[in-house]
Automatic annotation (TrEMBL):
The keyword DNA-binding does not apply. Keywords: Pyruvate. GO terms for molecular function: methylisocitrate lyase activity. It comes from the Eukaryota. The keyword Transmembrane does not apply. This is Putative carboxyphosphonoenolpyruvate phosphonomutase. PANTHER family: PHOSPHOENOLPYRUVATE CARBOXYLASE, PHOSPHOENOLPYRUVATE CARBOXYLASE FAMILY PROTEIN. It catalyses: (2S,3R)-3-hydroxybutane-1,2,3-tricarboxylate = pyruvate + succinate. Pfam families: PEP_mutase. Belongs to the isocitrate lyase/PEP mutase superfamily.
Length: 357
């Protein structure tokens, strides 16, 4: 197929173009109403295109990496929630294969505010872009996109901006625009039609951008309308082209396991929030239930708060910060890519580090 002689080359190009068209038709086309998408199996065209990209050694975008993990493996993708550069770098240091940018954490760390629809598209996109690009060869980033920050037009705009920012996938929910954290009481969701128009617009934006961006449909309808309504909403979202489902705030482990069964083979994401509205579900339990992605939205924010508070208390009472001796400024800068920066400078003939750091 990749021979360089004339005719074989032309034939392979024609085949490639045919497969690329098939990819668009199978995977990216906006289907006439009444027809459902099935994104749970890779189309032959998509597989072929990725083989070609690999063969040509092209850089793989985060969205493609994430989609490949979903389609080509059965693994549970474990994503620690990160909210800033250092928490993301720490997760990368430990080798997590994907990351999750929490909206609650972004709102708390960047704005010092609770998760109440206060962070808007530009703040979320800016944070996500920074995290997604810390290492262009690093783990794909799933981000929170809340309600899409408006009607269908804003949902589409958010997807476009997230794709350009290098975000691999994001979850879009059915709460009213004045939303709140999924693990608080008093949530309100919009009508099905309004939710589905958000999903449709988001999916159409991915199609327009010809991106592998993974659209995760989230429903918060459990509190207000019960389990069956959640399953109905997620089925509708799936049929409109959403790639993954997320039912927020399961009230029991049995309910979580049931949702996986009810929506199989469509992949589901589990948001594991300790001390929230749901029982704590471990990675092993989620894997056994058949979830495909698990996010731990508060994995770094809550411990950071505790560590900062404990340290500041010590500073207040003892007049000292008390950082362990092995944590030097250089240690922290190394977590943040110091060695890479030094190599870039030295390889370019720069002299900034001739006397070390
Ligand atoms: C997943 C979530 O959207 C987030 O921002 O991390 C939050 C997490 C939380 O606040 O508990 C959510 O609404 O569940």
């Amino acid at each position: 197929m990749f021979k360089t002689n004339g005719e074989a080359d032309l034939a392979s190009k024609a085949e490639l173009i045919k497969q690329a068209k098939a990819y668009e038709e199978d995977t990216l086309a906006v289907k006439p109403s009444g027809q459902a998408f099935d994104n749970s199996v890779p189309s032959p065209g998509w597989l072929l295109l990725n083989h070609v990209k690999e063969f040509l050694n092209q850089p793989v975008f985060g969205a493609t990496k994430l989609r490949k993990m979903l389609l080509e493996t059965n693994e549970l993708i474990v994503c620690p929630g990160v909210y800033d550069g250092l928490s993301a770098r720490t997760a990368m240091e430990l080798g997590f294969s994907a990351l999750y940018m929490t909206g609650a954490g972004t709102t708390a760390s960047r704005l010092g505010q609770p998760d109440l629809a206060i962070a808007q598209l530009h703040e979320m996109r800016e944070n996500a872009e920074m995290i997604a690009n810390l290492d262009p060869f690093g783990p794909p980033l799933i981000a929170d996109m809340d309600t899409g920050y408006g009607g269908p037009i804003m949902a589409a705009r958010t997807v476009e901006q997230y794709i350009r920012a290098g975000v691999a996938g994001a979850h879009l929910e059915d709460q009213v625009l004045t939303k709140r954290c999924g693990h608080l009481s008093g949530k309100k969701v919009v009508e099905r039609d309004e939710y589905i128009s958000r999903i449709r617009a988001a999916h159409a934006a991915r199609v327009r951008m010809k991106s592998d961006f993974v659209l995760i449909a989230r429903t918060d309808a459990l509190q207000q309308h019960g389990y069956d309504e959640c399953i109905a909403r997620l089925r509708m979202a799936r049929d409109e082209g959403a790639d993954v489902g997320l039912c927020e705030g399961f009230t029991s482990k049995e309910q979580a396991a049931q949702a996986v069964k009810d929506l199989a083979p469509w992949p589901l994401l589990l948001n594991s929030v300790e001390n929230g509205k749901s029982p704590t579900i471990t990675v092993d339990e989620a894997r056994a239930m058949g979830f495909r992605i698990i996010i731990f939205s508060f994995a770094t924010l809550a411990p950071a708060y505790l560590a900062i508070k404990e340290t500041l208390q010590r500073l207040k009472t003892e007049g000292i910060v008390g950082t362990p001796k092995n944590v030097t400024p250089v240690t922290l800068f190394e977590v943040c890519g110091l060695k890479h920066s030094m190599a870039v400078d030295m390889n370019a003939g720069g002299a900034s580090f001739k006397d070390g750091v």
